[in-house]
Specification:
It is a single chain. The protein has 585 residues and is an alpha/beta fold. Among the domains are: 84 residues, Arginyl tRNA synthetase N-terminal domain (Gyrase A, domain 2, 2-Layer Sandwich), CATH 3.30.1360; 226 residues, Isoleucyl-tRNA Synthetase, Domain 1 (Orthogonal Bundle), CATH 1.10.730; 95 residues, no CATH class. It contains 21 helices and 13 strands. The strands form four sheets. It has a four-stranded antiparallel beta sheet with strand order 1-2-4-3. β3 and β4 form a beta hairpin. Bound molecules: arginine (ARG). The site of arginine (ARG) has 8 residues, from β10. The site of arginine has 8 residues, from β10.
């Protein structure tokens, strides 16, 4: 469906033309004075300069063209030359009824859909997930759903950090604790055990212990380095040990992400890119784009237009090791080969912005991605505590994701238990759903690039600009619908008779604009702002209208249809944000 505001713009543009002016002056926007009118057109002001006439005269001439038009209930030219517009209840009703019957509320999909590889999550194997990984998962999941909604084929890749020094640290620590294991016996040629020599909780204790040790014990650190090198050279025993670490960690990660309602299509990682590195580097050398600098092999990526220094992209360090950037380049080689994406989108903390700039430039120079493939990095801000510093536990440590979710869920559980509207058998599931809404909406309602403060009481409040408030609105509508004895009929919608009904319908017509904005700008916050407005309009309507006690059956059917469409739009929007509503709360 054509967007509502575009339909109005088209009509007003025609009127400009009929009055003898350029139609382009007829662009209409939502009024910034809702007390005066619903829509406005300011085109008479710039037109006045072109045609050397007073803006008010132009506005009046255009208004005359629109007189009696069934699209409008009011067209008025006001000083110095604004056109104030109200749409007619019948026009509004027909548009909203069209939305109710159309697929996806008539929101058009992208006319040029692409294959998009999305790189988000990015946890490091064997290290517990912490809140730093939270934003990547939450924003990534939402953007994946939004991109799909608009018709793109999206491949979500978790891109595990599974090849670094942490692996060598773990292997070396296990060797110290259990030197008798066959993985460490170079003479061993049999089958390695299928059971891992550690559990996930042991693994989570082993890594921090090894990491701390490596900072004070130089010899241990060197041995861990050697172990990493040996693993990367393909040592059979170390490789078998690595596979145990992977299997156990990935199972745990899957559980954690499932709890967050975040999923991935492929579970590839840094290790999968390693075979692509040697041929890639050969190719780069052959192309003559590399050079040796301080013993390291690099690709210079500085461009003339740069106002700041962009250091070269390092491929191989002087000690012969490939680094993070090398792996990201090789991963691009792999992704182009496997998926031929039109776009690769990365989500990490904004402190990695320079890294991606270097990688993207090197990838272009090396011809790894064709010019038509877009590379984009979204660098998000930090989740801070109330002290304005990166969020920590009360003890000052890094807060684990599971702990954070448990804390929010406990808080919500207490609240709904006190309210006593939820059956005790449903308390647990309901608390989880509300907790997810609190956490995700609290994050997504901010612009991704901005830092924000995690504030449990504020995020979990049932009133205000929060996830639970949106859920509460949906639950309230569901309870009205459940009490309505008839069947909901979308075409029962009636032309609005009250301001509240008209405002709710106007809010509904803005659905497509908000979703498009969220899609175009990679900004789930646009959806949050929209559903906050829509929920507000729905609650006002509900307060001012007798719905279940309305004696006129056709009016009642109309109200119910309006409530039901509102619920459907709200539910579609929260689905794009990655959470869902309970039945009661
Ligand atoms: N594992 C990395 C980290 O924890 C994030 C990976 C992001 N993705 C990428 N292709 N570099 O910082």
């Amino acid at each position: 469906m054509e967007k509502f505001v575009d339909l109005i713009s088209q009509r007003v543009s025609q009127a400009f033309q009929a009055a003898g002016f350029e139609p382009a002056f007829g662009r209409v926007t939502v009024s910034n004075r809702p007390d005066l009118c619903q829509y406005q057109c300011n085109g008479a002001m710039p037109a006045a300069k072109t045609y050397h006439r007073a803006p008010i005269q132009i506005a009046q001439a255009v208004a005359a063209q629109l007189e009696g038009d069934p699209m409008f209930a009011m067209v008025s030219a006001v000083n110095p030359g604004f056109l104030n517009l109200n749409v007619s209840p019948a026009f509004l009703r027909d548009y909203v009824a069209g939305m109710a019957q159309a697929e996806r509320f008539g929101v058009e999909s992208d006319p040029n859909p692409r294959t998009i590889v999305m790189d988000y999550g990015g946890p490091n194997v064997a290290k517990p997930l912490h809140v730093g990984h939270l934003r990547s998962a939450i924003i990534g999941e939402s953007l994946k759903r939004i991109n799909r909604y608009f018709g793109n084929q999206v491949i979500g890749d978790i891109h595990l950090g599974d090849w670094g020094l942490q692996m060598g640290l773990i292997i070396e620590e296990v060797r110290e604790r259990q030197p008798e294991l066959p993985y460490f016996d170079p003479a061993f040629s049999g089958e390695y055990p299928t059971e891992a020599p550690f559990t996930i909780s042991e693994l989570e204790e082993i890594y921090p212990c090894a990491s701390a040790k490596s900072k004070v014990d130089e010899d241990f650190a060197r041995r861990a380095h050697d172990a990493t090198f040996k693993l990367q050279q393909g040592d059979r025993g170390y490789r078998a040990m690595w596979e145990h670490i992977m299997r156990i960690s990935v199972a745990d990660l899957k559980k954690n992400y499932a709890n967050l309602n975040v999923s991935f299509d492929v579970w590839m990682g840094e290790s999968d890119a390693q075979p692509y590195i040697p041929p890639m580097i050969e190719d780069m050398k052959a192309k003559g784009i590399t050079m040796v600098s301080d013993g390291a092999l690099v690709i210079p990526v500085q461009e003339e237009s740069d106002s700041k220094e962009v250091p070269p992209c390092i491929l191989v360090k002087s000690d012969g090791a490939a680094i993070y950037a090398t792996t990201d380049l090789a991963t691009l080689v792999q992704r182009m080969q496997d998926f031929r994406p039109g776009k690769v989108l990365y989500l990490t903390d904004k402190r990695q912005a320079l890294h991606f700039e270097q990688v993207f430039r090197a990838a272009r120079k090396a011809g790894i991605v064709p010019p038509e493939t877009e590379l984009q990095h979204i660098g998000f801000g930090t989740m801070n505590g109330k002290d304005g510093k990166p969020f920590k536990t009360r003890a000052g440590g890094v807060m684990r994701l599971e702990t954070l979710i448990a804390e929010i869920t406990d808080y919500i559980r207490k609240k709904i238990t006190e309210n006593q509207v939820v059956d005790s058998s449903e308390v647990e599931d309901t608390a989880r759903l509300i907790a997810m809404a609190a956490l995700k909406y609290g994050d997504l309602s901010n612009q991704p690039t901005k830092d924000y403060i995690f504030d449990l009481e504020r995020f979990a409040a049932f009133e205000g600009n929060t996830g639970p408030y949106i859920l509460y609105t949906i639950v309230r509508i569901k309870s009205i619908l459940a009490k309505y004895p008839g069947r909901v009929q979308p075409d029962a919608l009636l032309a609005p008779e009250t301001k509240e009904a008209a405002d709710l319908m106007l809010a509904l017509t803005r659905c497509a604009d908000s979703l498009w904005q969220a899609y175009r700008d990679c900004a789930p916050n646009a959806i949050c702002a929209y559903i906050y407005e829509l929920a507000g309009a729905a609650n006002k309507f509900y307060h001012e209208t007798r719905i279940l006690t309305e004696p006129d059956a056709s009016k009642q059917a109309g109200y119910v249809a309006l409530m039901d469409l509102t619920r459907r739009v709200l539910e579609a929007c929260i689905d794009l944000l990655g959470f869902e509503a309970p039945e009661r709360m």
